[in-house]
Design a protein that fits this description.
By secondary structure, the protein is mainly alpha-helical. The chain contains six helices and two strands; from the N terminus they run H-E-E-H-H-H-H-H. A two-stranded antiparallel ribbon has the order 1-2. The longest helix has 19 residues.
Length: 142
């Protein structure tokens, strides 16, 4: 039984332009690496570290979410060398996380998704300059 085309739900299309990809990748990196700040030590922690506390399943889930960032980079047309480095970052993060409980500590320090985001930003700034964003703080006004 086919649903008539006028009765189908229409979902918004996901943008494939570089600016949309940049927003998605930055959001995913924020979720995985900088979701909240731990009081006292003022270090950001994300879902990646929290998932590492769940043995086995958490490591696989974190690697899958990290692989999504690499997939977005592939869709941007990044070089095979860059994709290999990014996959290596995700793989190293996965291997560190395989150590039960203790694996969350190196993952707290080695932020593979932040490293991968940095590579994607460099690529976008070089090849799609119109998507560049300026980050910084206002030091003095006037």
């Amino acid at each position: 039984m086919a649903i008539p085309s006028d009765d189908r739900l229409s979902f918004p299309r996901i943008g494939t332009d570089p600016a949309s990809v940049r927003r998605r990748v930055e959001s995913m990196e924020h979720l995985l690496e900088r979701l909240f700040v731990i009081p006292g030590i003022n270090r950001p922690v994300g879902l990646d570290v929290i998932l590492d506390l769940v043995p086995g399943i958490g490591d696989v889930a974190g690697a899958a979410l990290g692989a999504y960032i690499v997939w977005e980079a592939r869709n941007l047309g990044m070089s095979k060398w860059q994709l290999t480095r990014m996959s290596g970052n995700v793989g190293f993060d996965f291997l560190l996380g395989l150590i039960p409980w203790v694996g969350a500590i190196p993952d707290f320090l080695f932020r593979s998704n932040t490293r991968n985001l940095r590579m994607i930003r460099r690529h976008l700034d070089k090849h799609h300059a119109d998507t560049a964003t300026i980050e910084g703080q206002v030091s003095r006004r006037g």
